[in-house]
Amino acid sequence: MLQKIEDLEKWNDIEDPWGYNDNVHDALRKRILLDEIPKMQYKNVLDIGCGQGFVTKDLPGEKVYGVDISETAIKYAQNNNKNVIYSTGSIFEIDKLFDIKFDLIIITGVLYPQYIGNSSSLIYLLIDKILKSNGILISVHINEWYSCQFPYLKINQVFYDYREFTHNLEIYSK
Amino acid sequence: MILMYHKIHPDTPTMWWVSVNEFYRQMVELSNKKVVYLNDYDCKNENHVVITFDGIYKNIYEYALPILKHFNYPFELFLTSDYVGYDNSFDSVEPLTKFTNSFELLKLVEGGGRLQWHTKSHPNLKNVSDLEVIIEELTVPEEIKILDINGFDWFAYPHGEFNDLVVNEVKLRFRGALSCNQGDEFDKYRFNRLTVENHTSLKKNTIACIIPCYNYGRFLIEAIESVIKQTIIPDEILISDDCSTDETQIIAQEYVKKFPGLIKYNRNETNLGIVKHFNEAIKLTKADFIFFLGADNRLLSNYVEECIKILNKSEEIGIAYTDYTFFGPRAKMAYELLPDFRHFGIINNSFFKVFFPETNSRFELLDILNQSNIIHGSSMFKRTAYDSVQGYIQSEMPEDYNLFKRIVEKGWDAKKAKNTNLEYRQHSDSQANNVLLLQKLMLFYKDSYLSLKKEKNDYENSKVFRISYKLYRFYRFIKRNYKNPRKIFKRILKIK
């Protein structure tokens, strides 16, 4: 069953509920992600499911956007970092939230059954609407819980240990 | 055929819900039909399909609308007006869900939907004989009517049930009406509808993916994973091993265990070589559409979807081909060997996109095929096309080029599926192993180990095992001590 929005709000009631800020694993996975982003000039960058902005605040790009379904998480994110344009919204309305297209989209820890159920085909469709052609999409997920594959060229993939799991980082080019 | 849906959602708690992915699959499967509005529906035309929704629930706006717009399908929305903007708390059996509000209804109409009538309060009209009640329920309020000026010509009986009086009143007000199963196929005032569920399949043709493998075990995991993560998963996946001496067999058998009924494994007792092997492998499958995926290559997730859309388009199209992209240590070299007009761009200095031309007619295609091949070996083809030329044959030409050329010469056309791609690995044996491949292999073995360990634990914790084990211990004890009844007696007392 999809996790209820009320539960997500409750979870985000405290700052840094997942304990990212003082965890070596999370420091490392952020470092790996930032290292793996292809070195290019990015105009518009979007972090889908940005939570309280742990990764978002360090992303490259002229304009960085972060979106999360939890309003509480976005409030913390806005307080933590003023350079990112944060907004609240669901991944299922992602094409309606923006009137621009992005040349880099990051999606971390979102495409799990408790958030998206059986709807991956629709998610590919919606993300495609907001990703520029030749744009880059980076997906980072716990390999054991992840079963998506985007309809783009998979130009790179990295596996590394994360907490007691394996992280799967995929880089796609549209 | 008229399809009936109620709710589309990522979760599917009861049979009235269809998951977003299954709905998407069903929409792809309609690509060989003509989806029409009820006004244009010809019940004798087997090609005609109407998509209908009853409610209308908010999740149709959230999850079905973007998919319907993507496929550019028209659809019908049977509205129960009392619930606009509310939820289904009256229906205590079903999980709580919201209905659409007027704004969402307008958006649905804008996206190709047409509003139709499903009464004000959804009463079962079968046993209602009070004409006033019937007329009240059949009357569309003005404020609802203005939501769709092209709509409200059709009616759907609540719960699919009706009596003669109701039908007569409906005839005075609507162009036609829909039931569920109280009606029939040809009476337009009592059309039956198909209740679509998660598992409902609307397609005519089945699909087989054959992964031939000869000592490419190290790449096999990536190839298989790229098939089982397709938006449209083939009906059969056959891993056909041409007598490999590497880990192919172990990996394939593990996948057969993981996906019983979907993945099959065939191992040739001797190495047959490509032509014989491919023909044998096809014999082991039954599906109408077939494609080969080299064990060292990968598909984009929409590969099957885009190819079947092309094959579904017309009877004459026998083959669907795509562009492909070289990657791997020899990719640059392979790319540079191609003529300039085939170069389609380089990404990250590691992915080399190769362009495949399209043709306007079969004659133009034949002309090109006489000079060089533009239909790659992973193209999807119809079994009937393959049978019409008796399959692969040995010749001077590459076996796939030869097969496809003969199919086109026989009268079939080949069309390109755009918007998808095949990742075509270019490698040499000395450069074949890299860290990523090893990691994938290790993760694969780790996964198999964990699932075996779980099986072992589950077994050891099961009652059957625990009781059998105790009985066995007891039996051993008796066997050892049957000459010593005192000891046995003591032991029995202890057990109690």
UniProtKB/TrEMBL annotation, chain A:
Short name of any one Pfam family annotated for the protein: Methyltransf_31
GO MF terms, alphabetically ordered: methyltransferase activity
Coiled-coil zones: none
Domain of life the protein comes from: Bacteria
One GO term of the biological process aspect: methylation
Keyword Transit peptide: no
Alphabetical UniProt keywords: Methyltransferase, S-adenosyl-L-methionine, Transferase
InterPro entries: Methyltranfer_dom, SAM-dependent_MTases_sf
Domain Methyltransferase: 43-143
Name of the protein: Class I SAM-dependent methyltransferase
Organism this protein belongs to: Flavobacterium geliluteum
